[in-house]
Amino acid sequence: MTAREVIQKKRDRGELTADEIAFFIRGYLSSEIADYQVSAWLMAIYLNGMTSQETLALTRVMRNSGKILDLSSVAGKKIDKHSTGGVGDKTSLVVAPVAAACGVADPMIAGRALGHTGGTLDKLESIPGFNPRPSPGQIVKILKNAGAVLMGQTKDLAPADRRIYALRDVTATVESIPLITASILSKKLAEGIDGLVMDVKAGSGAFMPNLRMASALARSIVDVCRSMKTKTVVLITDMEQPLGRAVGNALEIRECIDFLHGKTPDDLETLSMALAAHMVRLGGRAKSLEAASRLAYEEVSKGGAAKKFREIIRAQGGNDGVVDDPDLLPKAAHIHVFRATVEGFVTRCDAKLLGLACNALGAGRNRVDDVIDPAVGLYVEKKLGDRVRRGDVLCQVHWNDQKRLRKAITLIEPAFEIQSRPAPSRPLIHAVLEG
């Protein structure tokens, strides 16, 4: 078996065996197979796809490429949540403390900003002192004491994914359902979890731009998790417009804190509590989804979730005072108000354009080594279906650099569309799959 033969077989639409996939991944990790060969292989997969058995084999070998967390000393079931990424998607920061308050242990591996989508780790790092890189020993300790840990992928967890993802990012092979499935699940299943709740986004602000592709990814995730004996629930959710109102790192932390204190936009509440309820049920803390939802709402209303968020932040070296005083978070020096020029109804609030505008302000990265400004971002005042009058504020732009502001405004202007009649409403949760 040679690398060339494996590449050629996939190029010619052949089905790779588990041994061939394992040979290729292990060869790459040992430097016997070069980056340019893996790049060719990834493009062949992107163009020709993979069968469910190939995807399962790839996920398994990538998961086993490093260490698997030993969480056996942590009581109860370990349940995680993951999103495929979106604009204003801050649910992880809400769901983790809510689930922990309900008694579910959540070892959550989160990612950084990519393209127009925000990164949970970048948001967390806007909290002064927060450490997203605890050691394996610290992970277990934090889980036992706080009930959840919010962390980045360590060098030992699924190293094959970390190296392959870097190649996918520069070879235009990110949007491949088998590769996305293996990338997500290799990391998540290396956590040693008992169950996973997935949020697959569909819409302009998502990597899956339509429901057909999002549904295919959801089915792929369910199939692999079922084969690997991990309970899973996948929600397919809408990403045509930002989730919630805030887009940007410290601004989104502030919105999450508002949620934990009982103030939040309806869409953020609806989705966050749906995800939390599925985690609570999978974690065995409630027998039905309805009972799990009641428990989750109860922990928010009585302050248990806010208390857990303080504990998580404190355990990871952050200033937990931000939960009671969000003004401790970074704040931009200036706010520009973007107003409506006509009267009518908002028929477009484009998630991708607003995400790109946020990046232009400095809230995201175009290159891996870009430095993020945690204070900048957008606060969306009007969303789909809202009535507006001439002069009404559509969004606030929090900025620190005037050149960046000018670039952001050119993206915000076409993001909003106002018509005389409202557009048909879109459901927030399109479907739920379970395996």
Q: Helical percent range?
A: 40-55%
Percentage beta strand: 15-25%
Q: Main sheet, how many strands, which sense, barrel? A: 4 strands, mixed
N-to-C series of helices and strands: HHHHEHEHHEHHEHEEHHHHEEHEEEHEE
Mean pLDDT: 94
**Main sheet: strand order:** 1-4-5-13
Query: Spans with pLDDT under 50 lasting ≥5 residues?
Result: none
Q: What's the shape?
A: globular
- Count of helical regions: 16
Ends distance: 35 Å
Radius of gyration, in Å, reads 21 Å
Number of strands: 13
Please provide a written account of the structure:
The protein has 435 residues and is of the alpha/beta class. It contains 16 helices and 13 strands. It has a four-stranded mixed β-sheet with strand order 1-4-5-13, sandwiched between helices. Strands 6-9-11-7 form a four-stranded antiparallel β-sheet, with helices on both faces. A three-stranded antiparallel β-sheet has the order 10-8-12. α10 links the parallel β4 and β5. The relative contact order is 0.14. The mean pLDDT is 94.
